[in-house]
Design brief:
The chain is mostly helical. It contains 19 helices and no strands. Helix 6 packs antiparallel against helix 7. The longest helix has 34 residues. The relative contact order is 0.12.
């Protein structure tokens, strides 16, 4: 199987599992908003966002090392998994002390809604971090050793169990925020048990004879990922936190609602990135790696632009159809959110160069630049334009990260990014965003959006045909 076909096959398998899971979640959005309301919806998302950051800090981002070292055939999988789990468990224990301390800051900053939430839900946050960290390490290891189908099945199982527990705890027992968080925790426990038995993870774990040199190597790789994770968290999550503090929790809930549909692009990008990282690591020593990167990025960017264009055209009716009336105006906040996600995808692709070459420090520095810009712009823009200012700040931050990474990764592996193509596609999307902001007549609104989308589709059609030809070839020699 040629490397393009391998990449496509892994993407499809992961896509079947994860897209099905995400689709179920999207279908539940209206239910969540009805059960929790705008304030509750904002609160649980802030708790989840905070817990996500705590997981990365507590476990030293060991999941990144599990993937990188697990895929590489030069390392013993039993050692990789055992070291990963040991560090994960140690981090979980540390979080049991760390999380209550964070909650105490609510006494120092009584006006802070975020610190107050972590104080009120500290024990649930600890459980969330515990189950989420262990589940993540197990799932990432399963994917790293090539059990891609099992990894995909686990994604569907986790989502289905989450929804089942949601229905029971939110609808039947009406437990609100408590029920939402417990549902995620219980679903993660089901996932851990499932993976433990189906992947026979006990065969990969040992308490004795751990390779200290490998452990040191994994830590050297993943520890620089901690600041990187913090930077990404600041860029992705600080918007909603700062909106909560500077405007209101209700405004944060609307912002999160506006972000849900644009995250569909992230779903595709996330699925592809998982498959792509496997290929990039496996092919890192190939003599034609630069050509491989160039070809894949050309197809990837075309796909992202087409999905983004379709989303621009459909975003208003989707929000009106699925969301509660309190969220109807959320579509006005989506244009720069969609553009942010587009450049997040491109920045993540550039980051794969750092993963394959074990240049995690450079990943940290480039993300740090974007995070610093994002904080400054958020403070300025939210004060000026509220929610819309936050979306614009994120867009500029991700454009800067992509630009810096494109220049920096050129020193590691040369890629032709086809900048004229990127420029035209970006201008077409910005034109669609201008229509969403300014056009009130529905007929003109939809005809204009669909017309521009057809142009984007035609402009990127050639890349799609090229992808099909490369995948169908028995062997691709470059």
């Amino acid at each position: 199987m040629n490397r393009y076909k391998t990449l496509a096959a892994n993407t499809v398998i992961l896509g079947i599992g994860q897209f099905g899971s995400k689709l179920l979640v999207f279908l539940m959005v209206g239910f969540y908003q009805t059960a929790l309301g705008t304030q509750g919806y904002g609160e649980v998302n802030n708790i989840v966002d905070a817990a996500t950051l705590i997981m990365a800090l507590a476990t030293l981002s060991i999941g990144e090392a599990i993937i990188r070292f697990g895929i590489d055939t030069a390392y013993d999988n039993k050692q990789v998994f055992s070291i990963g789990i040991d560090i994960t468990v140690a981090g979980v224990i540390a979080s049991m002390v760390f999380i209550p301390i964070i909650g105490l800051f609510s006494g120092i900053f009584p006006e802070s809604t975020v610190f107050t939430l972590l104080r009120n839900y500290s024990w649930l946050t600890i459980l969330y971090v515990t189950t989420g960290s262990i589940k993540s390490s197990c799932a990432l290891f399963v994917r790293s050793i090539g059990h891609v189908k099992l990894y995909a099945i686990d994604g569907i199982l986790t989502t289905v169990m989450n929804i089942v527990f949601n229905v029971i705890l939110l609808f039947t027992f009406r437990l609100g925020n408590l029920g939402y968080l417990l549902s995620v925790i219980l679903a993660d426990i089901c996932s851990i048990v499932f993976l433990f038995f189906t992947a026979k993870l006990k065969d990969y774990f040992t308490f004795r004879g751990l390779d200290r040199e490998m452990a040191a190597g994994m830590l050297r790789f993943c520890i620089p990922m901690i600041p990187t994770t913090i930077m990404w968290w600041i860029i992705n999550v600080s918007d909603s936190f700062m909106i909560s503090e500077m405007i209101s929790m209700q405004a944060s809930g609307i912002y999160k609602a506006a972000s849900r549909f644009p995250s569909m692009i992230s779903i595709f990008s996330g699925i592809f990135s998982q498959a792509w990282n496997m290929s990039a690591i496996s092919e890192s020593n190939s003599k034609s790696i630069a050509k491989f990167y160039t070809n894949v990025f050309d197809i990837f960017q075309s796909t992202v632009y087409v999905i983004a264009g379709a989303l621009f055209a459909a975003i208003k009716p989707l929000i009106l159809m699925i969301y509660d009336s309190a969220f109807y105006d959320a579509y006005l906040a989506t244009p720069f959110i969609i553009m942010s996600v587009v450049f997040t995808c491109f920045s993540t692709f550039m980051g794969s160069v750092y993963v394959a070459s074990k240049q995690s420090v450079r990943s940290m520095v480039t993300a740090g630049i974007g995070a610093a810009v994002n904080i400054v712009l958020n403070i300025i823009m939210i004060n000026l334009w509220g929610i819309y200012g936050a979306t614009f700040a994120s867009f500029l931050s991700f454009v800067i990260i992509f630009t810096v990474r494109a220049i920096d990764t050129h020193k590691i592996v040369y890629m032709d990014l086809n900048l004229p193509k990127m420029g035209l596609n970006t201008l077409l999307l910005l034109a669609m965003g201008a229509i969403i902001f300014n056009v009130k007549d529905n007929t003109v609104f939809y005809i204009s959006l669909v017309g521009i989308f057809v142009i984007i589709l035609a402009f990127n059609f050639k890349a799609g045909l090229r992808a099909v030809r490369m995948i169908l070839k028995k062997e691709v020699i470059e």
